[in-house]
Design brief:
mainly alpha
Length: 281
């Protein structure tokens, strides 16, 4: 019986795919050639028709696993930091942790890859660099090379957290570890409570819509009550507020605020000119 031309390629790919799942489950040292070929439904004698040695198969399987992770997970995520958060939430999920055969090859094989041949390490390096470039493109879209080192550290932290979660026998502690890992990378923003005073730095970046201009006490005390930063609340206003607070700290009575203030601070001009200077309102 003659097979089509693509039969050999399909058989080789089947061996590589099943070998990748077996290697992640049993490890590189725990998977023999007989077991790898049995998973593919072939005999030991056909192994050398496709690979020169077990190391050749391991290097090919590692490269295939890294490529599959990139194509099926990372490349399908949304662009920007939202896509990166989507990847990390999937990575730190309990389903991904418990499914070792279908999970990340980094956490399953990283310690053994470090002791493998140069070909296997190079195959892993090429796949890891592809993942790092995807992370960097989402961390810094305008300058991805500047975020490559940070992306490499992120990949290492993700793999280490998943490995530790798999090693723990306490299921609740393992789940909390995964949740903590995702929270450390993408912390939830603190809730904004109504009526709590906040500084000018906390108000920056909240938008451009303004409350009514004639609102009483707007310059004296601005509160986080759901309103956006007013147009009148500029940097100069913040400096005036800060100076007024400093004035009141050095005065026993508000009526003596100006004199008490300049008892502790150098006047901006002549000794009497501060009296004619308009006090900020």
């Amino acid at each position: 019986m003659r097979y089509p031309k693509e039969h050999k390629h399909q058989t080789r790919q089947r061996i590589v795919t099943t070998a990748g799942r077996r290697l992640k489950h049993d490890g590189i040292d725990g998977s023999g050639v007989a077991t790898l070929m049995k998973d593919a439904g072939l005999t030991n004698g056909t192994f050398y028709a496709y690979f020169t040695s077990k190391d050749d198969l391991v290097a090919t399987a590692v490269a295939d696993q890294m490529r599959a992770q990139h194509e099926n997970i990372v490349a399908q995520a949304a662009p920007g930091r939202a896509g990166l958060e989507q990847i990390i939430r999937w990575y730190f999920s309990s389903e991904q942790r418990d499914s070792i055969e279908d999970g990340c090859p980094n956490a399953a094989l990283l310690d053994e890859i470090a002791r493998s041949t140069d070909a296997t390490r190079q195959a892993y390096t090429d796949g890891a660099l592809t993942l790092i470039d995807e992370f960097a493109a989402r961390l810094a879209p305008h300058d991805p090379p500047s975020a490559r080192l940070k992306s490499l550290s992120l990949l290492g932290m993700m793999a280490g957290t998943l490995q530790l979660s798999r090693a723990l026998t306490d299921r609740q502690l393992a789940d909390e570890l995964l949740e903590q890992g995702a929270t450390v990378i993408f912390p939830s923003p603190p809730p904004v409570r109504s009526g709590v005073p906040c500084s000018y730095r906390q108000l920056q970046g909240r938008g451009s819509s303004s409350p009514p201009t004639g609102e009483p006490g707007l310059r004296k005390r601005y509160q986080c009550s759901g309103l956006q930063r007013p147009a009148q609340y500029t940097v100069a206003t913040a400096h005036r507020r800060r100076r007024r607070i400093t004035t009141l700290r050095h005065c026993r009575r508000p009526t003596a605020s100006r004199g008490a203030f300049y008892d502790h601070h150098q006047p901006p001009r002549g000794p009497r000119q501060w009296r004619d200077r308009a006090w900020p309102q």
